[in-house]
Amino acid sequence: MLFKSRYLCFGSKTWYLNASLLLPFEELKSLDLSYNYLGGWIAPEEPNLLSSRLSKLEVLDLGGNFLDHSILSILGTIPSLRHLVLKNSNLSGTLHMNGGFSNLIELDISENAIDAVAIVEGGFSNLKELDISYNAVDVAAIAEGLCNLVKLEELDLSNNGITGRLPTCWRNMTSLRIMNLVDNEFTDNVASSSHTSLTSLEFLSISGNHFNIPSSLGPLANHSRLKVLLLDDTELIVDTKVASSIPRFQLKVFSKSNSPSKGFKVTSLGFLNHQYDLRMMDLSSNDIPGPFPTWLLENNTKLEMLIMRNNSFTTLEVPSMTRFNVPVMDISNNDIRGGLTTEFCANFPNLHHLNLISQQIGREYSI
């Protein structure tokens, strides 16, 4: 059952919901009060009345309102809550999560102005999904609390400007499947960081940070479940000691594109030699020289999107006896010269989008 507020709001005035109005809805499981100019709600006089009457409430969305920290003490009296959304709710400063929330498995506090999160010992013991993106937290402000979340499966800390190294205790979050650290200021060596122990990862984005990443991706070689790896605007460091083991992962999505202003370059694509299941790949703005790497297409016959613009490819030759199923290809802004042969066209029968802007392709063959 879904109950959504129908109160009218004029201008930007906030209002407070009298929580006693919810008490008759004893079968209520999901409540959406998002984007209602809500400033909070007034709890019933009896402290345990909400928990006794709303004992089946599992999903609560208060996103897009104008809340203060007092709402947390009220919500903590509803132990049945499993999914709580406080996204873009004008919360700021240190968020004290005291008491309750023992059954919560998802917490979204993104897009606020939170600079620290205080989690009491034993709190959120069942939390599996945590989104703190687009705030202003730092490692010191969240490390201790996160270290106790051993059941956490999804963590989003993107766009926080976090500096420093990953806390070593994050090695204990061995159930983590999704980690998004994009656009922070982490400075760490992946070979010795907590990443090496998180072998349950399926999605890893460390784009836009300052990680020291060996070009062989050797520190991630044992991450057999890894399917999505995003390394945009990061620098791959040439290994002084090349890893001898073949990576156990088979990626579906790999992105290592760069903003031209960063000046990062990929000198070798050898780390992709053992990938055979890629569906999407972006290697834009890496200044990769030489002929177009046809072997990437030959190895990954399920590719759906190939983006390799702003490199330094000079020739475009495709084996005449091979058919590729790629529907989207962008190889614009390279140095490819010569004609686009009829064999090329025949070998891409499912191509829907082809970008060849700023090439020296012969006019008589262009499509």
From TrEMBL:
<dbReference type="InterPro" id="IPR051502">
    <property type="entry name" value="RLP_Defense_Trigger"/>
</dbReference>
<keyword id="KW-0433">Leucine-rich repeat</keyword>
<comment type="similarity">
    <text>Belongs to the RLP family.</text>
</comment>
<dbReference type="InterPro" id="IPR032675">
    <property type="entry name" value="LRR_dom_sf"/>
</dbReference>
<dbReference type="InterPro" id="IPR001611">
    <property type="entry name" value="Leu-rich_rpt"/>
</dbReference>
<keyword id="KW-0675">Receptor</keyword>
<keyword id="KW-0677">Repeat</keyword>
<protein>
    <recommendedName>
        <fullName>Leucine-rich repeat-containing N-terminal plant-type domain-containing protein</fullName>
    </recommendedName>
</protein>
<dbReference type="Pfam" id="PF00560">
    <property type="entry name" value="LRR_1"/>
</dbReference>
